[in-house]
Amino acid sequence: LDSYRGSVKDFVNFNAKQDAELLHKAMKGIGTDEDTILMLLTSRSNNQRQEIKAAYKKAHGKDLVSALKSELGGLFETLVVALMTPPISYDASQLHKALKGAGTDDDVLIEILASRTCAQIKDIIKVYKKECGGKLEKDITGDTSGHFQKLLVILLQGSRDEGVDEDRIEKDAKELFAAGEGKVGTDVEKFINILGNRSHEHLRLVFDAYKNLSGNDIEDSIEGETTGNLENLMLAVVKCAKSVPAYFAESLNGSMRRAGTDDQTLMRIMVSRSETDMLDIRACFKKMYGASLYNTIQDDTAGDYGKALLYLCGGKD
């Protein structure tokens, strides 16, 4: 099982009933034992947390998440609720939150739709309909416009080509060059079509061919040719094609180490990558920024919230 790259694994001698009782005790009486709660929940996998939830309801006749919410507050509460949510439901709820209300949180749409696999996107759409009561595509098209909307909708199809099409590598690179640097104005449709539909393996080869052709990285061209949320989305798609862990390392770095921490982004990434590729993200972070992700989180966060994030990080590098 060495191929597993998450920081949170199944707890070996797992007993859902016992865990439910430990949590019950931690919340009983005066004061709450936050340490027990955070240590227990961060050392169980999401599937195991769902079993604990079921065991708790069976023993106590009430919802564990509601019980936790009534005992906790602030960022720590938000983090605990995120940990208790199944991953696909969590993505769906984050998208729903980003779309409803005044204004749209484009960064959340960009992060999730650029980084999730085709299979995950298909599942998110199903769960979104069931749990958020709407069609994700309809909600996105209602809240976005222009080329930004078009690329989001293409990504929402979750149907990238598979594998590498050798005959198309050079052709795609030339088309991208002709659509951007090679002309006045930009043929954004071409970019959207290629970036949205080719496989990640294929795109990596196209980007190499593009660099040979134009002398520039594709990112530089995108930055020179587009602006705003379209630019951000296209860059996210390019970065995820190159390396999803490096994309998240960069996002984590951006969420910390500056005036004020973007806790929503920090939390979302730590929770959603803890059982996916956190070990790779940590390695990329160290390589890119010369610091360990663990120490960076430690410097940037505090309290039970900070402690829980450190457990999710899983170690110093």
TrEMBL record:
Keyword RNA-binding: no
The keyword Signal appears for this protein: no
Superkingdom to which the source organism belongs: Eukaryota
UniProt free text on domains: A pair of annexin repeats may form one binding site for calcium and phospholipid.
PANTHER family reported for this sequence: ANNEXIN
Family assignment from sequence similarity: Belongs to the annexin family.
Protein name: Annexin
Species this chain originates from: Salmo trutta
